[in-house]
From TrEMBL:
Transferase found in the keyword field: yes
Pathway stated in the Swiss-Prot or TrEMBL entry: Protein modification; protein glycosylation
Subcellular location: Golgi apparatus membrane
GO BP term, example: protein O-linked glycosylation
Protein known as: alpha-N-acetylgalactosaminide alpha-2,6-sialyltransferase
Origin species: Molossus molossus (Pallas' mastiff bat)
Domain of life the protein comes from: Eukaryota
Reactions the enzyme catalyzes: a beta-D-galactosyl-(1->3)-N-acetyl-alpha-D-galactosaminyl derivative + CMP-N-acetyl-beta-neuraminate = a beta-D-galactosyl-(1->3)-[N-acetyl-alpha-neuraminyl-(2->6)]-N-acetyl-alpha-D-galactosaminyl derivative + CMP + H(+); a 3-O-[N-acetyl-alpha-D-galactosaminyl]-L-threonyl-[protein] + CMP-N-acetyl-beta-neuraminate = a 3-O-[N-acetyl-alpha-neuraminosyl-(2->6)-N-acetyl-alpha-D-galactosaminyl]-L-threonyl-[protein] + CMP + H(+); a 3-O-[N-acetyl-alpha-neuraminyl-(2->3)-beta-D-galactosyl-(1->3)-N-acetyl-alpha-D-galactosaminyl]-L-threonyl-[protein] + CMP-N-acetyl-beta-neuraminate = a 3-O-{alpha-Neu5Ac-(2->3)-beta-D-Gal-(1->3)-[alpha-Neu5Ac-(2->6)]-alpha-D-GalNAc}-L-threonyl-[protein] + CMP + H(+)
GO CC terms, sorted: Golgi membrane
Length: 130
């Protein structure tokens, strides 16, 4: 994420510039939809699925990336990810103007926060928070 933040500062809103002039398919990684379904069913099975919001719900991008890292890396450390004092900080770490985190129905951020806390407590990942 830190590398992306540095790139975004120098090339805002131009993702095609991040990969250089020879942007071959080998530079891109995609998650298979079945893997996203697996993560949703096994790790982030929200109660929102049983409500009128079921068609809106999906794990946050951060949750998908953190769980992907846990599935592919020997050691995972992360900063932030819905701290217990989240209201003190902006919605996204890279925002220059503070925007409050709002819990919309498209993500179950409370469920994600509980999962990160449990994985940190079990020493499965190292979660850094302020």
């Amino acid at each position: 994420m830190r590398a992306w933040a540095a790139l975004s500062a120098s090339s805002p809103n131009r993702p095609h510039t991040y990969f250089g002039p020879e942007a071959s398919a080998s530079k891109f990684k995609l998650l298979h939809p079945d893997f996203i379904s697996y993560l949703t069913e096994r790790f982030l099975k929200s109660k929102l699925i049983d409500t009128n919001f079921r068609d809106l719900y999906m794990p946050s991008t951060g949750a998908l990336m953190l769980l992907t890292a846990l599935h592919t890396c020997d050691q995972v450390s992360a900063y932030g990810f819905i701290t217990s004092n989240y209201w003190k900080f902006s919605d996204h770490y890279f925002e220059r103007v503070k925007k409050p985190l709002i819990f919309y129905a498209n993500h179950d951020l409370s469920l994600e926060a509980a999962l990160w806390r449990d994985l940190h407590t079990a020493s499965i990942l190292q979660l850094y928070q302020r």
